[in-house]
């Protein structure tokens, strides 16, 4: 750990807090207790340079709100450097005392391409990531990209990632050409994820063509609203289709405090039971589940705080799901590291809850060695 960077950040953070609390009395007594907590951020984006080239080929050919959105990031050399240069990333981590990042391919990932190019880019990205993880195992862990366009190739890549490459799980950037993971054709991906103990990070992307049009106005197709609408739809489709009855050991991670679903759990159960009471399952094509929808969310899902630096929402998610289901994330480089770190360092959760959110859950889920483990002494 870069102690100078850590001290510099903590001093800056203390000054910021002091000024914030000047008029409103400090309720931030938790800060000195938590500043020593190991900090692991779990939704941190990267991509190899070739990835941007392939996207820009498409984005420059077709002018749509989505292609303009992509160009807004991918045509900026500074953003491409943040995403592809691990020294730039490390400097940012050191500046704000982030101990470790679980890094994964940026949205929209490799899924917008055809099966062949998608699989090729996934392997290229995974090789690059594995190299960085091997070089700095105390600073980086990685999630493997896969191309669900070819479910069998994706399953083989999960095996390669979890064995040869030493990665910690899989990221799927949500729908694939409009298909969601409840489609039975994706069974090989779930089988591999369960067999190799790979948590599946379901990261949002732009809504598929069938729902995109109303999101194209006001810049709503991206992270402002469309990502959440698309990804929550995807997760609820997985629950309602019985994916977790078929794969009870499957673990799914959602960013952005659960894409709004924690707020909706009671209503999911209520409506599911209401339709069952009215005998409407067959007419509406509802699959009878072994448990209530919320129970899958509470036992098969984990959340990260990415881009949702809101203490009230964090407290609500911890209350609703338990501190053992929530993990810290920044969403680098799309969100500011300073803001995310200040947010978590000023949380009013108990030190015990906070230690789960800052590192214990990530260590357990992604098989990351504890900081005091011999293999973590870098
Ligand atoms: Mn993200």
Count of alpha and pi helical runs: 18
Shape: globular
Nearest-integer average pLDDT: 92
Q: Which structural category fits the helices and strands?
A: alpha/beta
Bound molecules: manganese (II) ion
* Percent range for β-strand residues: 5-15%
Low-confidence stretches: 1-5, 7-35
Gap from first CA to last CA: 9 Å
Radius of gyration: 20 Å
DSSP helix fraction: 40-55%
Name of the CATH class: Alpha Beta
**What is the succession of H and E elements?**
HHEHHHHEHEEHEHEHHHEHHHEHEHH
Oligomer: single chain
CATH topological fold name: TIM Barrel
How many beta-strand elements? Answer: 9
For the sheet with most strands, the description reads: 6 strands, parallel
Number of domains: 1
| Strand order in space, largest sheet | 4-5-6-7-8-9
> At CATH's second level, what is the architecture?
Alpha-Beta Barrel
Q: By CATH's scheme, which homologous superfamily applies?
A: Metal-dependent hydrolases
């Amino acid at each position: 750990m870069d102690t100078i960077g850590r001290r510099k950040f903590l001093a800056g953070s203390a000054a910021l807090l002091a000024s914030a609390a000047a008029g409103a009395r400090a309720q931030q007594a938790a800060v000195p207790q938590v500043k020593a907590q190991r900090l692991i951020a779990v939704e941190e984006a990267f991509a190899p340079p070739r990835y941007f080239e392939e996207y820009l080929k498409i984005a420059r050919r077709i002018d749509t709100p989505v292609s303009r959105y992509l160009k807004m990031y991918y045509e900026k050399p500074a953003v491409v450097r943040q995403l592809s240069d691990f020294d730039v990333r490390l400097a940012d981590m050191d500046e704000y005392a982030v101990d470790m990042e679980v890094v994964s391919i940026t949205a929209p990932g490799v899924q917008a391409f055809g099966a062949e190019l998608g699989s090729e880019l996934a392997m290229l990205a995974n090789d690059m990531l594995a190299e960085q993880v091997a070089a700095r195992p105390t600073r980086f862990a990685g999630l493997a990209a896969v191309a669900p366009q070819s479910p069998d190739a994706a399953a083989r890549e999960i095996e390669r990632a979890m064995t040869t490459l030493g990665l910690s799980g899989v990221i799927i950037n949500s729908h694939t050409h409009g298909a969601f993971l409840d489609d039975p054709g994706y069974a090989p991906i779930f089988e591999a994820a369960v067999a190799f103990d790979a948590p599946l990070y379901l990261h949002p992307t732009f809504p598929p063509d069938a729902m995109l049009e109303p999101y194209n106005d006001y810049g709503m197709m991206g992270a402002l609203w469309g990502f959440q609408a698309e990804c929550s739809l995807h997760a609820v489709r997985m629950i309602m289709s019985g994916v977790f009855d078929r794969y009870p050991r499957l673990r799914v991670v959602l960013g952005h405090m659960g894409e709004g679903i924690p707020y909706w759990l009671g209503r999911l159960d209520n409506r599911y039971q209401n339709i069952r009471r009215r005998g409407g399952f067959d007419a509406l094509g509802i699959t009878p589940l072994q448990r209530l929808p919320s129970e899958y969310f509470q036992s098969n899902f984990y959340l990260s705080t990415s881009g949702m630096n809101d203490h009230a929402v964090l407290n609500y998610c911890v209350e609703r799901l338990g501190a053992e289901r929530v993990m810290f994330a920044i969403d680098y480089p799309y969100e500011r590291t300073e803001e995310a770190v200040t947010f978590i360092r000023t949380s009013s959760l108990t030190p015990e809850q906070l230690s789960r959110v800052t590192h214990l859950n990530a260590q357990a889920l992604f098989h990351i060695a504890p900081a005091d483990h011999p293999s973590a002494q870098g």
